[in-house]
Amino acid sequence: MSFSLFERPLFQVGGHYVSFLGLIAFVGLFAAGLIISRMLQSRFVRRFFSRFKIDTNFLAIVTTILSVAAIVFFTVSAINAAGIPLLWNAPLPAVSLSLLQIFLLVALLVAVFWISSSTKRFLFNRFLVNSGLDRALQYAIAQIISNAVLVVGVLIVLENTGIHLGALAVFAGAVGVGVGFGLQNIASNFISGLVILAERPITIGDRVEVAGITGQVQQIRARSTVIRTNDNITMIVPNTKFIDSPVTNWTYGDPRVRFREALLAAGRENPNTLKDPAPSVFLKKFGDNSIDFELVVWSSEMSARPSRYRSDLNFAIEHKFREAGIELPFPQRDLHIRSGVLKVQSMELGTTKPPES
């Protein structure tokens, strides 16, 4: 008697009756989906995936997609449990794809992004590292091949999941006028990124000044370039700025200008140097035979072993200068004789000249 009460219809949705028992099943499955979705974005799951040497940004994308997929899966299961049939292999309204095909499409796209990222990492860190090419050129080649793998992979996935490119072309032509202006900047930045990688006006590690931003180039991505300023602030600059704006590259073609970066590298690479505040370099004064710079670093070692820490930094600076081909100038002196006569005697090695009378 009581069990039939739970099965008694409470309300109707789309011609299907929902009972009290079905409503409980819906709430339970939907709550389970929310809990699992939250767990997939926890630190434990991120640490687990990080063991596979997955890029941090890609890892965030994967965990987010898995979280959304968990919510969708349990929501659809909850709707079915409530008594409203929603088939996994049935095409959705106004869409020729079923839920199963959409899940497959998302999974394949994630795999394509992972293959593209892994290809870039493999080429840059292993395959091209002993090729003898310039390191910046190795990065450019790896980035271009990675982008090609991504584009080809996406096209193959779309074709094999039932989304025909011909239909997409018709759709793009229909809505291209509306969204063309919105996508124009993205396409322009992408093409500019390819031009930067091909012509290499800037490379990773260069110190540049563009659009009022001065700093060191950290990454050259498909749409933007990452620059770290002197204040250790990361700036994202669209790639078009390096094509249509004046760019000052302080390290382009002249390794002597790397002295500032050599000082910063010597400070950063010391294990006893604090990351925050970051090391910095100041121009102190113009000397008689030099331009005096000062390397400023923060470390707890100065209170315990200041002499050792300062000595290690000096050794590191000298090593960095030698690597960059920077020579330390010696002072020169000019001698002016106001009056009188100065006798100069020439001495040759291996011979002795008697003094003049």
Strand content: 5-15%
Q: List low-pLDDT spans.
A: none
Shape: elongated
CATH top level of one domain?
Mainly Alpha
CATH architecture term of one domain: Orthogonal Bundle
Query: What class do helices, strands and sheet pairing give?
Result: alpha+beta
- Assign the CATH topology of one domain: Helix Hairpins
Taking all Cα atoms into account, the compactness measure Rg is 33 Å
Structure characteristics:
single chain, 357 residues, alpha+beta, Helix Hairpins, SH3 type barrels, Alpha-Beta Plaits, five-stranded antiparallel β-sheet, two-stranded antiparallel sheet, 10 helices, 52% helix, elongated
Question: Could you characterize the architecture of this molecule?
Answer:
The chain is an alpha+beta fold and 357 residues long. It has ten helices and nine strands. The strands form three sheets. The protein has a five-stranded antiparallel sheet with strand order 6-5-4-3-7. A two-stranded antiparallel sheet has the order 1-2. It has a two-stranded antiparallel sheet with strand order 8-9. The chain is elongated, with a radius of gyration of 33 Å. It starts with a helix and ends in a 33-residue tail after the last helix.
